[in-house]
Amino acid sequence: MGKTFYLMRHGETLFNTQKRVQGWCDSPLTENGIELARKVGHYFTEQGVKFDRAYSSTQERATDTLKLVTTAPHQQLKGLKEMNFGIFEAREEELLPKHRPGSRSFEDLLVPFGGEDIREVGQRVRETIISVMETVFDETILMVSHGAAMWGLVQVLDIHFPPGVFLPNCAILKLTYLDGQIRFDQLIDPNQDFITYDF
């Protein structure tokens, strides 16, 4: 059967609106980010989803988002932290290296600039999730992380999103854990009236 859990991206931040790189650096949630996170909380309530426990990355934007979604006991985990973008931290997104032809991510392009390989980040997130899910039984779990960290997990799990489908702020991955494996069930996009994607 497996254990269902939800992995969510943080709400919109100041740096998101300024199109600045936001990896290990941080910036506060905007009013829009706060409002959408609250809507996610209402959505889960309407769906009958009550969280017993919640986890966020150690970064403020993720922890603040979590607290707007649920009042469940929570814990910060470094393994859910965003990717390190090296010298591009807090700089304009347009300065980032361009993806290689045919690539869906930065791959290892940021490593020479002091950043991380996105697949290694995805592996870090995967291992963190597994360590948590091995300790829970019938509990309903929420985890709040970051765009690149979640996209790295998507790469590691070999999930193929249709062209043009990404992970906007507050996007939610519904996942199942069973016997050391993580299975993708659904993408829920609160930016589009909680439209769901199954692929």
Structure explained in plain terms:
The longest helix has 16 residues, at 31-46. This protein is 28% helix and 19% strand. With 199 residues, it is an alpha/beta fold. It has one domain (3-197): 3-Layer(aba) Sandwich (Rossmann fold), CATH 3.40.50. It is globular and about 45 Å long. The model has no long low-confidence stretch (mean pLDDT 96). It has a 7-stranded mixed sheet. Helix 2 crosses helix 3 (60-69) and helix 4 packs across helix 5. Substrate binds at residues 9-16, 61. Belongs to the phosphoglycerate mutase family. BPG-dependent PGAM subfamily. It is an enzyme of class 5 (isomerase). Pfam families: His_Phos_1 (PF00300).
